[in-house]
Amino acid sequence: MPDMKPLSGKVMLVTGAGNGIGRAIAMEAAKAGAQVVVNDIGASLEGQRESSAAAQDTVAEIERSGGVAVANGDDVSDPEGAKNMVQQAVSAFGRLDSVVNNAGILRDCFFHKMTYENFDAVVKVHLYGSFNVSRAAADVMREQGSGSLIHMTSTSGLIGNLAQANYSAAKLGVAALSKSIALDLARWNIRSNCIAPFAWSRMTSSIKVDSPEQQERVDRMKEMKPEKIAPVALYLASDEGAETTGQIFAVRNNEIFLMSQPRPVRAVHRGEGWDIDSVTRHAMASLKSSYVPLDVSADVFNWDPV
């Protein structure tokens, strides 16, 4: 009887797969029949290397469950490291069908206290890392005439959050990068999508708790398991997801959201053109009622997950 698993014959590379969301996606992909390259440099939340065991541990767990996987310890922020992990996938399994750009670090602080080094480090892993791995994978996928690139964005970038200028900038950049990839590579049947995940993971465990409200928020997040993110990622990697590209999804427990993308909200026109006085009296007076509020993510997702 033929193997009817949804990802049979597929090869998936998951970055940052030693823990949390990446590990859950890698394990569920293997259960769905994919051969998996598990990338993790074994870094702390701040990005310092600590141990090479994380990727190996995920591979061992996959193999115990009857799946097939190999470990990779390259750094996504290094273009050569990205090329190495893609080449490892091809060398080990003969092809590369999907990439999940999940690797990330946090260095949270308020903007007026943020150093260049902390801004640079976070952007390098999240945004440059997504570029590096996707760019290396694109060459392989173009030759195959197919592929799926799946990037982790965040409502911190799509909506906003306090004390995360570096992370928010990187994650909104990832969403724009994904859209450009979807446009540029469509002719080779390569699709590109984003997921904004809500889940308790090693990264979210670093959230500072300094009030009963924050503690309540953290307690709610602890109920959101990384495994809840995997089904959408697996769909986007599967043949069933072949017509889905250029989209941004959010996944929160048992909820799946299709997120909006920036489009004009309201317009004003003045035939004779504008000066500062008419901008003040006419343009802004008309547009002000449609201003986007200064929200944070929790203001928009302000109900308990189901």
Automatic annotation (TrEMBL):
Protein name: SDR family oxidoreductase
High-level lineage: Bacteria, Pseudomonadati, Pseudomonadota, Alphaproteobacteria, Rhodobacterales
SUPFAM superfamilies found in the cross-reference section: NAD(P)-binding Rossmann-fold domains (SSF51735)
PROSITE patterns named in the record: ADH_SHORT
Pfam families: adh_short_C2 (PF13561)
Tree of life domain: Bacteria
Family: Belongs to the short-chain dehydrogenases/reductases (SDR) family.
Gene3D superfamilies assigned to the protein according to its UniProt record, in alphabetical order: NAD(P)-binding Rossmann-like Domain
InterPro entries according to UniProt: KR_dom, NAD(P)-bd_dom_sf, Peroxisomal_Beta-Oxidation, Sc_DH/Rdtase_CS, SDR_fam
Domain named Ketoreductase: residues: 10-206
Species per Swiss-Prot/TrEMBL record: Limimaricola litoreus
